[in-house]
Design a protein that fits this description.
alpha+beta, Immunoglobulin-like, Four Helix Bundle (Hemerythrin (Met), subunit A), 7-stranded mixed β-sheet, 6-stranded antiparallel β-sheet, 9 helices, 15 strands, binds protoporphyrin IX containing FE, binds 2-acetamido-2-deoxy-beta-D-glucopyranose
Length: 408
């Protein structure tokens, strides 16, 4: 709600009061962006507050900015998701080519506008540093036209920790660059990022636009529109994979299995399940593309379990057919029948669980997770009911038959 208001109100506000303000920004890789602003007061006294922004897609497990020219001796700020929709920014001391360890001397404050935004797709940290002009290992001249900075980033699942000491593993890549801080002057000593946390589009260390009009498209924080998260995601591969795979595992396979005890028509069951089976492979192909694009590859529980489940489903139609042949011949269930039935039931349950892991991996909205769980629970209960009904029917048929046989 506030976010709908913010752009209009704040652009009018900035236009009149902050027109002298600008920050410098740089995106070393797609959508991983950094901004720095130095209040006039700090620049003239050579010490005091400076403002930093780190921004990255949530497909990154951590991203970091540092002052200095290499890891060793740098003052490093590492951002990661805190697990509650916000971010943790941990000040760390660079000691060499090893994990920088948390230090308590640098005073960082996470400010408004920080958090996991854009429907869980982007992490933003707006940070005030009260004493970044010097640290144990080096110093930063707040008026330098070529201040040394370093950056590093790593893809992977969310750290989800509020601890400043969370352990991180080595970057996928890093960069060394300079910022012209003379172009980063802020008129006031206030958070400069709240009105338009632009980024994602800028490719160089140019100064950002004045914030009035113009930059409209890139403003990453104006996400809180009225459209629900899942509707806005519909055109993406992520949703196509998630929706199709969930429909197969949560709706189509269980319904196809219910058809069997309910109608006792193996043809109906077989046709339905093979249709679902083909849809599953289409969704699998989308999942593989997603896994490559996001860089998750086969390192996540969701992608590993998903691949195993899909592969194991591969033999299920054959098992069904073998059961059918056995049944036609023997008019009763054999080992192959119980194999087909229980193998199918277990894989369906694993597939449903894996959908939950997928939602977690994608950082899906709470409402979507609840909807998924409710639909899965309803179908599960219906399935149990149909299965019990089927057994009762079978026993009614089998009961007198057996009695007749034994009495004969
Ligand atoms: C577990 C954490 C980390 C480990 C194990 C690690 C390890 C390394 C290693 C082995 C190198 C040299 C090889 C190469 O260039 O790839 C390197 C370079 C570099 N790393 Fe890290 N790093 C870590 C975290 C960080 C962080 C948080 C930053 C933050 C900005 C960073 C920034 C850099 C930069 C700028 C370089 C190139 C300059 C240099 O050699 O110091 N690293 N790192
Ligand atoms: C991916 C494809 C398939 C899946 C996931 C699947 C799954 C299942 C499941 C879970 C059951 C147990 C139903 C219950 O709980 O009562 C079942 C039963 C059965 N399936 Fe399949 N099935 C598939 C393909 C086939 C095919 C291709 C055939 C036949 C050619 C077939 C024939 C049967 C028969 C005859 C039963 C009844 C077994 C009985 O109640 O004695 N299935 N299937
Ligand atoms: C049992 C099978 C599977 C089910 C039920 C399933 C379901 C889901 C669901 C519901 C989502 C969330 C989508 C969203 O929130 O928009 C998702 C995401 C995802 N799935 Fe699957 N999936 C399955 C198998 C796989 C497989 C086999 C792979 C890859 C090898 C895969 C890769 C992914 C990836 C990479 C994401 C998105 C992560 C992101 O964009 O943040 N999934 N899946
Ligand atoms: C994250 O924390 C900061 C500082 O407490 C706060 O100002 C900001 O509103 C929080 N963001 C979210 C999305 O909760
Ligand atoms: C910053 O801009 C200057 C001049 O345009 C350029 O030479 C320098 O390479 C840029 N630095 C980065 C990190 O892009
Ligand atoms: C920023 O404001 C100045 C002065 O109002 C103007 O000359 C300049 O064109 C503006 N730049 C952008 C990118 O809007």
């Amino acid at each position: 709600m506030q976010r709908l208001f913010a752009p209009a109100v704040l652009s009018a506000f900035t236009y009149s009061t902050l027109s002298a303000a600008s920050t410098v920004s740089y995106c070393p890789t797609t959508n991983v962006c950094y901004q720095v602003g130095v209040p006039e007061a700090s620049a003239s006294s050579g010490s005091g507050d400076i403002y930093l922004q780190l921004q990255a897609p949530t497909s990154y497990t951590w991203v970091a900015l540092g002052t200095g020219s290499q890891m060793s001796g740098a003052n490093i700020f590492v951002m990661y998701a805190d697990g509650t929709g916000n971010v943790t920014v941990s000040p760390r001391k660079g000691t060499g080519h090893t994990e920088p360890k948390h230090q308590t001397t640098t005073s960082l404050q996470v400010l408004a506008g920080s958090g996991v935004i854009d429907n869980g797709q982007t992490m933003v940290a707006n940070v005030k540093c009260a004493n970044c002009e010097s640290w144990d290992g080096g110093s930063l001249t707040l008026t330098s036209s070529s201040a040394n900075f370093i950056a590093a980033w790593k893809k992977g699942s969310a750290v989800n920790s509020k601890s400043l000491e969370a352990s991180i593993s080595m970057h996928d890549n890093h960069d060394q660059f300079t910022f012209d801080l003379t172009k980063a002057t802020l008129a006031d000593d206030t958070n400069p990022f709240v009105e338009a946390s632009s980024g994602g589009s800028g490719e160089s260390n140019t100064t950002t636009p004045n914030g009035s009009s113009g930059s409209g498209s890139g403003s990453g924080s104006s996400s809180g529109s009225t459209t629900p998260a899942w509707v806005r995601e519909i055109p993406t591969i992520e949703s196509a994979h998630g929706i199709l795979m969930s429909i197969v595992m949560v709706v189509l396979y269980p319904l196809g299995s219910i058809l069997m005890p309910l109608f006792g028509s193996w043809v109906l069951h077989a046709v339905w399940q093979i249709g679902s089976f083909l849809a599953m492979w289409a969704a699998f192909a989308l999942g593989v593309i997603l896994a490559q694009r996001t860089g998750y590859n086969f390192t996540e529980n969701h992608t590993i379990l998903g691949t195993v489940v899909v592969a194991l489903f591969g033999v299920q139609p054959i098992g069904g057919y073998l059961h059918h042949l056995y049944y036609v011949k023997n008019q009763r269930r054999g080992l192959v029948s119980y194999g087909h039935i229980w193998y199918g039931r277990i894989l369906i349950v694993l597939g449903i669980i894996n959908g939950g892991l997928g939602l977690k991996l994608a950082g899906a909205a709470q409402s979507l997770v609840i909807a998924y769980a409710v639909v899965a629970a309803v179908i599960f209960v219906a399935y149990m009911g149909a299965a019990v009904l089927g057994e009762v029917k079978r026993n009614r048929r089998a009961g007198p038959g057996r009695a007749r046989k034994s009495s004969a």
